[in-house]
Amino acid sequence: MDVTFWGVRGSIPSPGPATVRYGGNTSCVSVRLLDGETLIIDCGTGARNLGISLLRGDFGKGEGSATVLLSHAHWDHIQGFPFFGPFYVPGNRFTVVGGSHNSELLERVLERQMAAQFFPVQSYRNMGAHIEMRAVSEDREVRAGKARITAHPNPHGPTEVLAYRIEADGKSLVYASDVGYELGGPPEATVAAYRGADLLIHDCTFTPEDRAQRMNRGLSSLDDAVEAAVRAQVKRLALFHYDQDYSDRDVDDLVRRGRRLLDERGGKGIEILGAAEGLTLAL
Ligand SMILES: [Zn+2]
Questions:
Q1: Ligand 1 centroid to 20 CA: how many Å?
Q2: For the stretch 247-257, what's the b/e string if a residue is b when 16 or more beta carbons lie within 10 angstroms of its beta carbon?
Q3: pLDDT at 184
Q4: What is the pLDDT of residues 187-246, one digit of tens each?
Q5: Residue 151 exposed, middle or buried by CB count within 10 Å (0-12, 13-18, 19+)
Q6: How remote is the CA of residue 216 from the centroid of ligand 1, in Å?
Q7: Does the pLDDT of residue 40 top 90, yes or no?
Q8: CA of 77 to the centre of ligand 1 (A)
Q9: Domain that holds residue 169
């Protein structure tokens, strides 16, 4: 499978000269399986550029279909929705999957940002494509073509967020953004959900020092990301969801420091990289 980053920033877009290399758009990742199946993980503002790219293929002709996996509905994970071009092409089909008590509630939450007070289109129903909202079922299994997807709940401040593990084409990808573990790092059940992944995309909003000042935000530090990667013995760790105030140089420092921490904690064999807009990784 190919994994492409379209937005890697947390909380709010942060365009400008200091964020040109890693990018300023908020969370959005796409996955293309060998059989052509498209998965989209989160729809922050990065989804706009993903949409432009998809419109060049089947989605531009109204013949595209994709599954959208939402970790949660905070702004930086859904604000790209109204600007995602393929939603406006009749014939395209989407299943939007998220964590909620039921599908109607998930739909109501997502419809709120489409209300006339916020956006002129007023409803997903007016966008053109067929969009079905589906709450993650109780067994937390999600079907999308040949991909086997499981959702794992993590704490995120006062709310909950879903991590997704995608198994397809003999490879595994875990997306775990916006995770606020208790002090001491991820619990055993979480480590089990990440175990042995070929790629772990993990929240790395803060340096350990900054997280200590902002525990109530429910987000991870570099320390948490490294801890999760080492304990789960993943093959590759992609740092993700950087604080909006971090410059490219700050993110470079996170990656360098992450390398040192991995080496010190028994993760010498784990590759580390900083997720950047436009970067595609082949698994
Ligand atoms: Zn976020």
A1: 20
A2: bbebbeebbeb
A3: 84
A4: 999 999 999 999 999 999 999 999 999 989 999 999 999 999 999 999 999 999 999 999
A5: buried
A6: 14
A7: yes
A8: 6
A9: 2-282
- Residue 21 to residue 130: CA distance in whole angstroms: 35
Question: How many Å lie between the centroid of ligand 1 and the Cα of residue 29?
Answer: 13
**Number of structural domains the chain divides into:** 1
Measured in Å, residue 8 CA sits from the centre of ligand 1 at 10
CA of 61 to the centre of ligand 1 (A): 32
Q: What is the distance, to the nearest Å, from the Cα of residue 36 to the centroid of all Cα atoms in its chain?
A: 20
Q: What is the DSSP letter of 26?
A: B
Distance 63 CA to ligand 1 centre (A): 31
Tell me: pLDDT of 138 over 80: no
Question: What is the three-class DSSP state of 208?
Answer: helix
Q: What is the CATH number of the domain that holds 118?
A: 3.60.15.10
The CA distance from 183 to 211, in Å, is: 11
d(CA 283, CA 152): 22
Each residue's pLDDT tens digit, 75-117 = 999 999 999 999 999 999 999 999 988 999 999 999 999 999 9
